[in-house]
Design goal:
Blueprint lengths: L3 E5 L4 H12 L3 E6 L11 H10 L3 E5 L5 H11 L3 E4 L6 H6 L1 H21 L7 E7 L22 H20 L2 E7 L2 E2 L8 H13 L6 E3 L5 E2 L2 E2 H12 L6 E4 L5 E2 H11 L4 E4 L8 E4 L2 E9 L17 H7 L7 H16 L12
Parallel strand pairs: 1-2, 1-4, 2-3, 4-5, 5-6, 6-11, 7-10, 8-15
Antiparallel strand pairs: 9-12, 13-14, 14-15
Helix pairs in contact: 1-8, 3-5, 5-6, 7-9, 7-11, 9-11
The protein binds NADPH dihydro-nicotinamide-adenine-dinucleotide phosphate and guanosine-5'-diphosphate-rhamnose.
NADPH dihydro-nicotinamide-adenine-dinucleotide phosphate binds next to helix 1 and strand 5.
C-alpha cells in the first residue's frame, strides 16, 4: 500500500508538479481545491483525466484555508500521512491590496491546518510541510541567506508567512509534531502564473515575436532573485518529509540574477537583442530592439513598483545538500529557455496552456 498525502494548493504551480511526483511514487493523493466560478484545475487536468482512464489515485475536495471546520473534516476523513501546505495568496504585490486576506489564508491558515491535525488526533502519525519562503529575509541582513539568517519581512505576504513559520516551530516544540518549514527561494516553470515576473516576461516575448503585442511593461528591473525550476524544488519538499526528524531547510540555486537579465536572456532566446536606453533604473529607461532602435520593446510602468521592495535574494542551500542530498539541477539559462520555448509553442497554437486551458 502506498502512502496517503494531502496537498493544499494542488491547482497551483507547485501543487501540480508535486501531485504528479507523488502519484509516480505510488501515493494516493488528495487535494483541496477552491470553488471558483471559472475553471481552476487546468494544471492538474491531465492527471484527473488519467484517473478515469487508468485508475490513478487522485481525489479532490472542496475547501479553503480560511475554513477551519472544512479542514478538520477533510483531514479526519482522509487521514493523510503527509500534508503539503502549498495553498496561499502567493502574490507579494497583491498582498499590499489585500493584507487582511493574506494574513488570514497564509498566516492563520497554517494554524488552522495544525489544529485540524490535532483535532483529528493525528499529531504522531502525520508529517507536515509548510511552504515557507525566501521573502522572509526581505530587507537584506546577510548574503547569502541561510537557515540562520534573521528575518525582515517586507510585505503583508511575508509578514503572514513569518507568523506561519513561527507557529509551526512552536507546535513542533510544544507537541512533538513532525512539522517542517521549507524556505524556498523563487522557483519558476512554464506553469508559473502569468502575473509573476518571469512568466509575464516569457509570455510577452512570445507574443512580441509573433506580432501579437508591441511592448512589455515592467516595474523594478534591478531586483535580484535566486531563480530555480519548480520541478527540482518539489522533490526537495518530499525529501524533507522523509527525514526521521523534522527540521527547516533552505532550497535555492546559490545564484542570483536581475529581472533585467531575465528580460535580456528571454528575448535573446527568441532571436532579439535588447539594448537599454535612457537613465538606468528610472521610469524613463526603455529597452529597444538593438537591430531597430525605433522598436521599443520594454517600458517601465510605476504601477508595478512595490511600496517596499526586496532587492536581493541569494540562497545558501548547503544544509539541504548535506542533510537531504538535494541540489537544484536546472541552470538559469535553461530555465529561461524552457519557459520561452513553451510560451512560443502556446502562442503558435502548438500546445495548450496548462494554466488557462478550459474545458
Ligand atoms: P500558486 O499561486 O501557483 O498556487 C497557490 C495555490 O494556493 C493555488 O492552488 C490556489 O488556488 C491556492 N489557494 C489560494 N488561496 C487559498 C485558500 N484561501 N485556501 C486554499 N487554497 C488556496 O503558488 P505556487 O505554486 O507558486 O507556490 C506554492 C506555495 O509556495 C505558496 O504557499 C507560495 O506562497 C509558496 N512559495 C512559492 C515560491 C515560488 O517561487 N513559487 C517560493 C516560496 C514559497 P487557486 O488555483 O484556486 O487560486
Ligand atoms: P516575488 O515574485 O515577489 O519574488 O515572489 P515576482 O515574480 O512577483 O517578482 C519578482 C521581482 O520582479 C519585480 N518586478 C515585477 N514583478 C511582477 N510580478 N510584475 C512586474 O511587472 C514586475 N516588474 C518587476 C518585483 O518587484 C520583484 O522584485 C515570488 C512568489 O512566488 C512568492 O509567493 C514567493 O514566496 C517568492 O517568489 C519567493
Amino acid at each position: 500500500m502506498g502512502k496517503v498525502a494531502l496537498i493544499t494548493g494542488i491547482t497551483g504551480q507547485d501543487g501540480s508538479y508535486l501531485a504528479e511526483f507523488l502519484l509516480e511514487k505510488g501515493y494516493t493523493v488528495h487535494g483541496i481545491i477552491r470553488r471558483s466560478s471559472s475553471f481552476n484545475t487546468g494544471r492538474i487536468e491531465h492527471i484527473y483525466k488519467d484517473r478515469h482512464d487508468t485508475g490513478v489515485k487522485m481525489y479532490l475536495h472542496y475547501g479553503d484555508l480560511c475554513d477551519a471546520t472544512n479542514l478538520i473534516g477533510i483531514i479526519s476523513k482522509v487521514k493523510p500521512e503527509e500534508i503539503y501546505n502549498l495553498g496561499a495568496m502567493s502574490h507579494v504585490k497583491v498582498s499590499f491590496d489585500m493584507p487582511e486576506y493574506a494574513a488570514d489564508a497564509d498566516g492563520l491558515g497554517v494554524l488552522r491546518m495544525l489544529d485540524a491535525i490535532r483535532a483529528a488526533g493525528m499529531e504522531k502519525t502525520c508529517r507536515f510541510y509548510q511552504a515557507s519562503t525566501s521573502e522572509l529575509y526581505g530587507k537584506v541582513q546577510e548574503v547569502p541567506q541561510s537557515e540562520t539568517t534573521p528575518f525582515y519581512p517586507r510585505s503583508p505576504y511575508a509578514v503572514a508567512k513569518q507568523y506561519a513559520y513561527w507557529i509551526l516551530v512552536n507546535y513542533r516544540e510544544a507537541y512533538g509534531m513532525h512539522l517542517t518549514n521549507g524556505i524556498l527561494f523563487n522557483h519558476e516553470s512554464p506553469r508559473r502564473g502569468r502575473t509573476f515576473v518571469t512568466r509575464k516576461i516569457t509570455v510577452a516575448v512570445a507574443r512580441i515575436v509573433e506580432n501579437m503585442q508591441k511592448t512589455l511593461y515592467l516595474g523594478n528591473l534591478d531586483a535580484k532573485r535566486d531563480w530555480g525550476h519548480a520541478r527540482d524544488y518539489i522533490e526537495g519538499m518530499w525529501m524533507m518529509l522523509q527525514q526521521d526528524e523534522p527540521d527547516d531547510y533552505v532550497l535555492a540555486t546559490g545564484e542570483t540574477h536581475s529581472v533585467r537579465e531575465f528580460v535580456e536572456k528571454a528575448f535573446k532566446y527568441a532571436g532579439v537583442e535588447i539594448k537599454w536606453k535612457g537613465p538606468a533604473g528610472t521610469v524613463d529607461e526603455i529597452g529597444v530592439d538593438a537591430s531597430n532602435e525605433e522598436r521599443v520593446l520594454v517600458k517601465i510602468d510605476p504601477a508595478y513598483f512595490r511600496p517596499t521592495e526586496v532587492d536581493l535574494l541569494l540562497g545558501d542551500p548547503t544544509k539541504a545538500k548535506t542533510k537531504l542530498g538535494w541540489e537544484s539541477k536546472t541552470p538559469f539559462v535553461k530555465l529561461v529557455e524552457e519557459m520561452v520555448k513553451e510560451d512560443l509553442a502556446i502562442v503558435r497554437g502548438e500546445i495548450d496552456d496548462a494554466e488557462s486551458r478550459e474545458q
